[in-house]
Specification:
The chain has 640 residues and is an alpha/beta fold. 40% of the residues lie in helices and 18% in strands. Helix 14 crosses helix 15. The radius of gyration is 39 Å and the shape is elongated.
Length: 640
């Protein structure tokens, strides 16, 4: 067969290729050069590239593969391929251990199709194959052989845009997804080797987040491939997890998802401060459960070439956060081919030889819910007396407090997070022991070792003297360069800290109610749990009553100032002088005064007494001093 000599012969050639396309593997790629000539219809131009494509086509046609007939009841395999300008697929059947082609499908991309991402091209290939070979798809099961994340994308309930349209179209067929195995058909060797894989050296970016709410617990995962293909996972946990446990579940599930899609290098992003500090060794792991989570994470991490963990702000983790909240707030999502995961808490509960500390809330909850009591009589009496100070609201345990109607009881892991967040979080301000305890109670939380746990925050980590060296060091200079970034958190710490004089926070005096601090969102406080559509009306009522509260704060401030004045006056030794008395005057440590010089000088003569308790003096030569002096800096003169 001779090469075409004009446009008409090129048209005849492309028509023949189209007629034989079901027999030709990747026919779109093989004929793309010829179709480009037809697009330039005003001029026929046959170059060396066209000669090469024509010779390769003739060589392939000389040894066409023999197409097989599908076997009734046997599944059919599909291999997919995508390039920059074309997409292809091959329908395969296995007969006596060998793979035989049944049909080839090819399509040249045009217009908007050229802008599809890699995964969208593969999904579009599967959709076109299902349209053209609908009878084959309706009969036996179809198994798509691919190492890409195509199955995760098409089975993702959060898919949107054209993906949700294609997912709906493919839902009527029995389609499964399996990793690509070794090729058993020589006719498919060229087809498979030309499938572009992701860049092996480029890492996958994974964003994870965990959520523990009243309806349940869930985790959210966002995977981004090196080619910017995105996959969203929203997984509901089948048990009630704490916030910290949910964060670790998200980290482990994120690595499992990365392992499932074949990633070898991973950049793992999370907004969990506790997990980040525990994994890098900064924070000590006191919880036995969390220690098992860390061990499981490190064991899974060892199966990758590289795993880099990044702590990011919550604002940069919005997608994973929304997926986690979705999973924890709705009924479980049924995914046809879910990512493999293990229930680590179930493993912890079944662990042999590990002594786990019991949650201090467990005996009280059991007694209040079902009347369960310990075996000995003394413990029963103690539990009865203790449980009288607690109550159950839904599934949560609350303490009947004096300063608040109810305080939410939390476990050890949540207590550690509350301490860290309230002490040095976005509204922290590093308060002392007393203020820290008050802020935690004000937020609405309680645990029995609160005062003991808070006490360690009053111990200074570092002592700095007044020699001035620390104030010219590199650490302080770097902090001063970014002090503006610290200003919002400092201001919020001042606004949300109760003042001794008024008994209220500055925010409360302005808006009539306390601000919802970040710790109340992460570990839902009572008012967050009870939030409803009537909240706006209650806020307006608080603003109407704010004047009465301000008057109460002003009266308390006045009484506080009186107590301060009385306390100061008790320690002050009253001194009174008359005109003509001789007095010593304290030497001010300024100017040329040396440390070894006498602290008093004089005598001076009192020449005038003012109503404020200050005195005008003159020296021995009769010169009047330029300003009055307080009695605190004077004492009677005694010769000798």
């Amino acid at each position: 067969m001779a090469p075409p000599r004009n446009l008409k012969e090129v048209q005849r050639l492309t028509g023949r290729i189209t007629a034989l396309s079901r027999f030709i593997s990747k026919s779109a790629d093989r004929s793309l050069t010829f179709f480009k000539i037809l697009r330039r219809a005003t001029k026929f131009q046959w170059d060396g590239k066209c000669d090469k494509a024509f010779e390769e086509l003739k060589q392939y046609l000389s040894s066409l593969p023999i197409l097989a007939k599908p076997v009734v009841g046997e599944p059919l395999l599909i291999y997919l391929s995508s390039t920059e300008h074309a997409i292809d697929s091959a329908l395969i059947v296995e007969i006596e251990g060998s793979q035989q082609p049944v049909y080839f499908v090819s399509h040249i991309l045009k217009d908007a199709e050229l802008r599809y991402t890699g995964l969208e091209k593969l999904a579009y290939t599967l959709v076109l194959t299902a349209r053209r070979l609908r009878p084959y798809f309706l009969a036996p099961p179809i198994i798509v052989m691919t190492n890409s994340a195509l199955g995760r994308v098409l089975l993702n309930p959060e898919a949107s845009g054209r993906l949700i349209k294609w997912t709906t179209e493919l839902s009527e067929f029995d389609i499964q997804y399996q990793p690509r195995s070794a090729i058993k058909a020589q006719a498919l060797a060229d087809f498979i080797t030309e499938v572009p894989d992701s860049e092996p050296e480029s890492p996958w970016r994974i964003y994870v987040d965990g959520s523990a709410a009243r309806p349940g617990s869930g985790i959210g995962i966002l995977l981004i491939s090196p080619r910017e293909d995105r996959m969203h996972l929203s997984i509901r946990l089948e048990y009630r997890a704490t916030n910290n446990e949910a964060e670790y579940e998200a980290l482990i599930a994120g690595l499992q998802a990365a392992q499932h899609v074949g990633a070898t290098k991973v950049l793992l992003h999370s907004d969990s401060q506790l997990a980040a500090q525990q994994l890098n060794g900064t924070f000590e792991i006191n919880s036995v459960r969390l220690r098992l989570y860390v061990d499981a994470f490190k064991k899974l991490k060892a199966s990758f070439q590289e795993v880099v963990f990044h702590k990011i702000p919550r604002s940069e983790n919005q997608a994973a956060d929304e997926l986690a909240k979705l999973a924890s707030a709705v009924t479980p999502i049924v995914i046809g081919c879910p990512v493999e995961q293990v229930s680590l808490v179930a493993y912890v509960d079944r662990a042999v030889g590990i002594s786990l500390p019991e949650d201090w809330r467990a005996p009280i909850i059991k007694f209040l819910q079902s009347g369960t009591l310990p075996g000995d009589r003394e413990s029963e009496q103690i539990l009865r007396r203790r449980a009288a100070r607690f109550t159950m609201v839904g599934e949560h345990l609350y303490k009947k407090a004096f300063s608040h109607p109810l305080l939410k009881c939390v476990g050890a892991e949540d207590a550690e997070y509350i301490l860290q967040e309230v002490h040095k979080g976005s509204c922290g301000g590093h308060p002392g022991r007393r203020s820290l305890t008050r802020k935690i109670i004000l937020a609405g939380y309680f645990w029995p070792t609160l005062q003991r746990d808070v006490s360690r925050f009053g111990i200074p980590r570092r002592l700095i003297s007044d020699n001035g060296r620390q104030f010219v060091g590199q650490e302080l200079e770097e902090w001063c360069k970014g002090w503006v970034d610290e200003l919002p958190s400092v201001l919020w710490a001042l606004r949300t800290t109760p003042k001794e004089g008024t008994g209220f926070t500055p925010f409360h005096l302005v808006y009539g109610g306390e601000a919802v601090v970040p710790v109340e969102v992460r570990i839902e406080s009572e008012r967050v749990l009870r939030y409803d559509g009537e909240n706006e009306g209650r806020r307006q009522m608080e603003l109407d009553m704010v004047d009465e509260m301000r008057d109460k704060a002003a009266a308390r401030l006045t009484a506080y100032k009186q107590r301060m004045r009385q306390n100061y006056n008790r320690r002050v030794i009253p001194r009174s002088f008359q005109v003509g008395d001789l007095v010593w005057k304290r030497v001010k440590p300024v100017g040329d005064v040396k440390k070894l010089e006498a602290p008093w000088t004089g005598p001076f003569k009192v020449i005038e007494r003012l109503w404020s308790g200050t005195y005008y003096l003159e020296d021995a030569e009769g010169r009047k001093l330029d300003r009055p002096w307080s009695a605190n800096h004077l004492q009677p003169y005694r010769a000798g």
